[in-house]
Every structure is written in structure tokens, then in C-alpha cells.
Design brief:
Layout (H helix, E strand, L loop, with lengths): L5 E7 L3 H12 L4 E5 L6 H6 L1 H20 L14 H26 L2 E4 L2 E5 L2 E4 L2 E10 L3 E3 L12 E2 L1 H4 L8 E5 L3 H12 L3 E5 L11 H13 L3 E3 L2 E8 L4 E7 L5 E6 L1 E4 L3 E3 L32 E3 L10 H15 L13 E3 L4 E6 L2 H7 L3 E7 L4 H6 L5 E7 L5 E8 L2 H13 L4 H6 L9 H9 L8
Parallel strand pairs: 1-2, 1-6, 2-3, 6-17, 8-15, 9-10, 9-15, 10-11
Antiparallel strand pairs: 4-5, 5-6, 7-16, 12-13, 13-14, 18-19, 19-22, 20-21, 21-22
Helix pairs in contact: 1-4, 1-8, 3-4, 3-6
The protein binds flavin-adenine dinucleotide.
């Protein structure tokens, strides 16, 4: 008879990769356990990532609208103020509801939560809290953590990672963000909207690396209008705590000058790295790549029999939905089905205001490939709904093959870009042409008409510009 230490599948880590994989594997009839060392399920995403950051982005957007934008519509609010403790409590409530939700789903699907730290001790064998478990398939979904910046010690009080930046007990007057990537810009927006003067220091000469260049330029201009200061092509050489805050020394990348910036809080957001060194993987011979990520084949198998990996701990974009797709695909592969992830159609979204979203190839990708492509573009200034919302910043851009009209990529900066990109992701997934999108009837007046018009513009026949 099967014992309580024998499973078909044991997943290490209950983030979006791990918990989704565990649930899908259970649906497919496997006996499944999921190991998680945190007090709550949901991983980085639900506890200290996507969900709490979106809760704070929502609250601060609401506040900023009420304080600065409503008056334009004739809504006058006097004496508006922020109760930060309540805002933080609301955020925690959102997180708790989500993490409890995963606990419920585990129970519903018969997934056993093995509480504690998991260490792989031999193929098919894992140790959790002093007890040994066996499984036919062990799946590493241990995720990622903030990359440190050499010489800068995070205290999560004045020098913080994204985790500390989600927990600040008071609104800083000045916030310096090291790293102009997605997470830094989102958290900079949170505190900027509440009144902090935000400075972003970025090594490269542009923000949001990987994003379509034209979109990134517009994004930077819009953020600058909101009060962000950017120090591009600069590196941080020293971070020093003082009696009144922190002094940050920055140096131009070309070595042409240094500057000291005084700030109250420093947010270190220089990327994330795989959590792969503490689980006993190297000891049993699992191969890692040069960045410490677990190496897998196209079926998520490592070089050790019975051991697989998914999510942030393997190569690819560090995104919750990418991890989830891999979790489902792997569970299905283990069940003999044809699980598969289309890496060419994974959307990326920045949840600032306005939002920024992209899927497929950027113009820079296409130029590098020497591809022949055409561009269709439509500004939100020409969209009736965006005007009614008072959100006319930004545009939709579609990239299609010059000869075949096949959609190659799509990029949106504007209101609700993260929701609008879903349609274009579906189009890309189905191998649609720009013409297919252009011929689809879109409801009026909606922001999605800008998507249709951009697709029409790829053929030079947009109506409203
Ligand atoms: P994780 O979510 O990191 O989960 C791994 C889990 O494994 C953790 O809970 C960890 O405790 C556990 N674990 C690790 N080792 C062990 C062990 N040995 N034993 C037991 N347990 C272990 N992505 C988006 O798509 N959209 C967003 O809006 C977004 N916002 C973000 C905002 C912030 C501030 C941050 C930091 C990240 C954000 N991300 C976002 C990224 C997203 O959180 C990650 O891509 C996602 O969580 C990766 O999922 P995962 O399952 O691979 O790993």
C-alpha cells in the first residue's frame, strides 16, 4: 500500500510555477505533494511580488486620481489624505485572501502541503523537515530572489529590496531606485504617487531593457511628466548611510563624472537570480547554467533522471504566467500528454499608469533578424473612450510581416494596456495576420478600437487618423 512518504510527484516551491503544476498533476490523477518553506502558499508572486505590488499600485492610483485628476471632471474633494497603515493593511488582506485561496485549492485537489525546507538528497528522494520522501518525479520550482548589488547591504529599512519597498511604514520624501526595470518603475510609481520625489539610476542608456525601444522612450517621457527623474548611463559606486538618510554616489558610465545624491530610501532593483544553490541539486549532479539557473531540455527534464525544473529557476522571462504555463505543460508531459509552451507569445506588462504591454517581437528584434516588416500605429488621443477617460497618453503598435501580413509582435502603452494585449496575444497564438485583427468587429466606444485601428494602419487604412 502507498505510504504517506511515497508520491508520484513532489514539487519544491509553491509559487505560480509550483502550485499550478501541483494542481494540474493532481487533476491528471497523480498523487502529489508540494514542499513550501514559507508560512503561506503562493511564492514570491502572491506574498511579496505581483499581488501586493498591484494592491499598492491600485490604491495609490485611486489616491492620485482623487487628489489630482478628479477636479478636471468637476469632482472636488477637499481634505483628502492618505492613511498608509490602512492602505498597507488592505494590501495584506488582498495577499492573505490569495494565499488562503491556494490552500483551499490544494485541499480541493488533494495536494499535500509538506511544510518546511526541501532538500534533494538523491535521485527520487527529498528531505523535508527531517523526514525523507520518495517520488517518481521531483519538480524544482524554487523560483528567484532579488540580486544583490555588491557592496550594498540591504537592511529592508532604508536600503530596501522590492520586499522592503512594499512594506515602508511612512511615505519617504525622496526615493532613489537603483535599476530602471519593471519592478523598480512600478514601486517608484507607488511611492511617487504618494508624494515621494523619485530618482531612477540606470546603467543602460534607456529604461525597461527588452521593451520595444519606441515604447520605452515614450514611457520614460510620460514618467518624467509624472515627476520621475532619470539618471541613465550611470552606475552606483557607493551607498552610505548618514544620520539623516543615505548618500548615493553615482558615476557616468563613460567615467566623465560623479555625483552624490542624498535620499531617504534606496530601493535596490537590479534584477533577480535563480534560487538553485541551496536545494542539494549540484551535489547530485544537476547541471546549472552560467547564471545559476537549472538547465532543462524542451520537456523541462534536467540531466538527472526523475528531476525537472520550471519557472524563475530556469531560463526565460521571470514572469508568473510563464511559470504557470510551464507548470501545466510539465504536468501534462508527465501524464503522457502533449504539454507545450509557446515562448513566442508570452505577454509582458508593466502596471504603471499608463500601463505598458508587449508580446512577440520588438522592432529591435526584427531589425536584428533583418526581417522585412511593416508597422501599424494608432494613438490613444484619437480614441473616443480614452478621451472620455482623460487618458490619452500612448499608442498601440503592431508589427507584421511585410509580405505575408502575419502578426509578429504588438506593443501598447496606454490605459489598460495589460488587458488590451490579451487580444493580440491570442492573435499571435493563432498565427493571425494584421488583417484578421483589422477585420474583427470591436465594440464602440472601447479602448480596444485602438488595437483594431493600429492593425488597419499596418495596411495604411486606419479610419480615425
Ligand atoms: P516563486 O514565486 O519565487 O516561488 C518559489 C517558492 O519556492 C517560494 O515560495 C520559496 O519559498 C519556495 N522555495 C524555494 N526553495 C525551497 C526549498 N528548498 N524548500 C521549500 N520551499 C522552497 N510577475 C508577473 O508575471 N507579473 C507581475 O506583475 C509581477 N510583479 C512582480 C513584482 C515584484 C515586486 C516581484 C519581486 C516579482 C514580480 N513578478 C511578477 C515576478 C513573479 O513574482 C515571478 O516570476 C514568479 O513568482 C515566479 O514563480 P515561481 O513559481 O517560479 O517562483
Amino acid at each position: 500500500a502507498p505510504s504517506d512518504t511515497d508520491f508520484d510527484v513532489i514539487v519544491i516551491g509553491a509559487g505560480p510555477g509550483g502550485y499550478v503544476c501541483a494542481i494540474r498533476a493532481a487533476q491528471l490523477g497523480f498523487k502529489v505533494a508540494c514542499v513550501e518553506k514559507r508560512e503561506t502558499l503562493g511564492g514570491t508572486c502572491l506574498n511579496v511580488g505581483c499581488i501586493p505590488s498591484k494592491a499598492l499600485l491600485q490604491s495609490t492610483e485611486d489616491y492620485h486620481g482623487a487628489a489630482h485628476d478628479f477636479a478636471r471632471e468637476g469632482i472636488i474633494i477637499e481634505g483628502i489624505k492618505v492613511d498608509l497603515a490602512k492602505m498597507q493593511a488592505n494590501k495584506q488582506g488582498v495577499v492573505d485572501a490569495n494565499t488562503k485561496g491556494i490552500e483551499f485549492l490544494f485541499k480541493k485537489n488533494g495536494v499535500t502541503w509538506l511544510k518546511g525546507f526541501g532538500k534533494v538528497t538523491a535521485p527520487y528522494t527529498i528531505d523535508v523537515a527531517g523526514k525523507s520522501y520518495k517520488a517518481k518525479h521531483i519538480i524544482v520550482a524554487s523560483g528567484s530572489e532579488s540580486s544583490p548589488l555588491p557592496g550594498v547591504e540591504i537592511d529592508e529599512k532604508v536600503i530596501v529590496s522590492s520586499t522592503g519597498a512594499l512594506e515602508l511604514p511612512a511615505i519617504p520624501k525622496r526615493l532613489l531606485v537603483i535599476g530602471g526595470g519593471v519592478i523598480g518603475l512600478e514601486l517608484g510609481s507607488v511611492w511617487g504617487r504618494l508624494g515621494a520625489a523619485v530618482t531612477v539610476v540606470e546603467f543602460f542608456d534607456r529604461i525597461a531593457p527588452g521593451m520595444d525601444g519606441e515604447v520605452a522612450k515614450t514611457f520614460q517621457k510620460i514618467l518624467a511628466k509624472q515627476g520621475f527623474k532619470f539618471k541613465l548611463s550611470h552606475k552606483v559606486t557607493k551607498v552610505e548611510k548618514t544620520a539623516s538618510g543615505v548618500n548615493v554616489t553615482i558615476e557616468k558610465v563613460d567615467g566623465s563624472g560623479t555625483e552624490v545624491i542624498e535620499t531617504d530610501i534606496v530601493l535596490v532593483c537590479v534584477g533577480r537570480r535563480a534560487v538553485s544553490k541551496s536545494l542539494g541539486l549540484e551535489e547530485i549532479g544537476v547541471a546549472l547554467d552560467e547564471r545559476g539557473r537549472v538547465k532543462v531540455d524542451e520537456h523541462y527534464a534536467t540531466n538527472v533522471a526523475g528531476l525537472y525544473a520550471i519557472g524563475d529557476v530556469i531560463a526565460g522571462p521571470m514572469l508568473a504566467h510563464k511559470a504557470e504555463e510551464e507548470g501545466v505543460a510539465l504536468a501534462e508531459i508527465l501524464a503522457g500528454q502533449a504539454g507545450h509552451v509557446n515562448y513566442g507569445a508570452i505577454p509582458g506588462v508593466v502596471y504603471t499608469w499608463p500601463e505598458v504591454a508587449g508580446v512577440g517581437k520588438t522592432e529591435e528584434d526584427l531589425k536584428a533578424e533583418g526581417a522585412e516588416y511593416k508597422v501599424g500605429k494608432f494613438p490613444f488621443t484619437a480614441n473616443g473612450r480614452a478621451r472620455a477617460m482623460g487618458c490619452t497618453d500612448g499608442f498601440v503598435k503592431v508589427l507584421a510581416d511585410k509580405k505575408t501580413d502575419k502578426l509578429l509582435g504588438a506593443h501598447i502603452i496606454g490605459p489598460d494596456a495589460g488587458t488590451l494585449i490579451a487580444e493580440l496575444t491570442m492573435a499571435l497564438e493563432f498565427g493571425a495576420s494584421a488583417e484578421d485583427v483589422a477585420r474583427t468587429c470591436h465594440a464602440h466606444p472601447t479602448l480596444s478600437e485602438a488595437v483594431k485601428e493600429a492593425a488597419l494602419d499596418a495596411d495604411g487604412r486606419a479610419i480615425h487618423i
